[in-house]
Specification:
Arc Repressor Mutant, subunit A; globular; DNA-binding; disordered C terminus; mainly alpha; 7 helices
Length: about 120
DNA sequence: TAATTGACCGCAC
DNA sequence: TGTGCGGCCAATT
């Protein structure tokens, strides 16, 4: 059982400040497995049993993809709202306002917010 | 034991 | 320009 990066994921998720959210990709990158963002989801999957704020972890699109496994969908959204997270008309999180990046490791790369806007998740 | 899945992301064609 | 595919780690069946 290595779950070495698992521990990192937990630490990072735990460090997520209130009113902020992060994405799998960023966590994965900080953990050193940016190519394996899926594994981060697995970590959270096991973490959902812990006190980790999984609801603050969303995908790059700001969608609450993990709400399904989180348990109560409404609860997850409610928790985020309680933290002050704002949702758009699509029920997604405003990454522009609440996107938080873990500064544990060296941040050699910039966030591609442009791509997010470029993709423009059509409704 | 081995193969497949799983809350994803980035790149290639 | 849009679509599809591969990759990574671990747990599960």
């Amino acid at each position: 059982m290595k779950k070495d990066f698992f521990d990192k994921v937990y630490s990072i998720v735990k460090k997520i400040p209130k009113g902020k959210v992060t994405t799998y990709g960023h966590i994965a990158e900080v953990c050193g497995i940016k190519s394996s963002a899926r594994t981060v989801g697995w970590a959270l999957n096991l973490a959902k049993n812990s006190n980790l704020p999984c609801h603050r972890v969303v995908n790059r699109f700001g969608e609450l993809t993990g709400k399904i496994h989180f348990g109560d969908i409404n609860l997850m959204e409610d928790l985020l709202k309680s933290d002050g997270i704002e949702f758009d008309d699509n029920g997604k999180v405003n990454l522009e306002k609440h996107l938080w990046i873990p500064k544990n490791s060296k941040v050699h790369k910039k966030i591609n917010n442009d791509k997010l806007s470029k993709k423009k998740l059509h409704p």
